[in-house]
Amino acid sequence: MSNKVAIVTGASAGIGLSVASRLHGRGWVVVGSSRRGTGSNGWTSVVMDVDDDQSVTVGVQGVVVEHGRIDAVVASAGWGLAGAVEQTPITEGKAQLDTNFWGAVRVVQAVLPTMRRQGSGRIVLISSIGGVIGLPFQALYSASKFALEGFGEALAYEVAPFGIQVSLVQPGNVRTDFTQSRRQVSAPADDDPYGNAVAKAIGVMEHDEANGVPPDKVAVVIEKLLNSARPRRRVSVGKVGERVGLPAKRLLPYRVFEGAAKSSLGV
């Protein structure tokens, strides 16, 4: 295992930090990237901004030059945007997708030539239960994760002939600083038609995140995927009450599902 090399994005905190630290502890050569290049727990920390094409290209090339291969990439860089769709500036919506979706695309495109040439590789994309079930007042966040779901599924068909396998991990509520880092859309100071509803929905979300699973539980699942001979395409992580929504959405009539989901989503 000591010669296997993994790149983990968003490694300065949260799920990314837990994944980088866990893989390092299991003998992987880990390169953890973030905008500031902080958060190292014994593994190599580098500056790489997934919003920037050149930053990603230079960062990945540096790993190839130093180590000669890339066995796995875990794309976990991301953040959340909260607010009503009507009040969300397009610039902020684009910024949300630029990190959560296009950031993963940039990293994947950068590592694929190396993985393809070596005839092997694992790509793990950190999606979300919110990438299958739309989150009210976090519509752009959900949009970024819904897009990642389709991207990962299509990518898997393309790269399978080259020995590259793709998995989507769908966390539910996880106790990380993601909650404190969530950006709030500016709303009218007076007579905000969405104000009470936004406050309630985000309040429910923050409460559930504070009582969610620890990030290391997600890291354990990712480690198993990377070590599996036949990794699953999708795997959810979180409390049973959250995860049950995924099959319920597929199996129940949509009115029944939405009626049951409203209280848990804070609407």
Structural key phrases:
single chain; globular; 267 residues; alpha/beta; seven-stranded parallel sheet; 10 helices; 9 strands
Describe the structure.
The model has no long low-confidence stretch (mean pLDDT 95). This protein is 50% helix and 15% strand. It has 267 residues and is of the alpha/beta class. Strands 3-2-1-4-6-7-9 form a seven-stranded parallel sheet, with helices on both faces.
Query: What would you call the structural class?
Result: alpha/beta
Largest sheet: 7 strands, parallel
Q: Based on Cα principal axes, name the global outline.
A: globular
Tell me the helix content.
40-55%
Order of helices and strands: EHEEHEEHEHEHEHHEHHH
Low-confidence stretches: none
What is the end-to-end distance?
47 Å
How is this structure best summarized?
The protein has 267 residues and is of the alpha/beta class. It contains ten helices and nine strands.
Q: Which secondary structure elements does this structure contain, and how are they paired or packed?
A:
Layout: E1 5-9, H1 14-25, E2 29-34, E3 44-47, H2 53-67, E4 72-75, E5 81-82, H3 90-118, E6 121-126, H4 139-159, E7 164-171, H5 178-181, E8 183-184, H6 195-210, H7 215-227, E9 234-237, H8 240-243, H9 245-251, H10 254-265
Parallel strand pairs: 1-2, 1-4, 2-3, 4-6, 5-8, 6-7, 7-9
Helix pairs in contact: 1-7, 2-3, 3-4
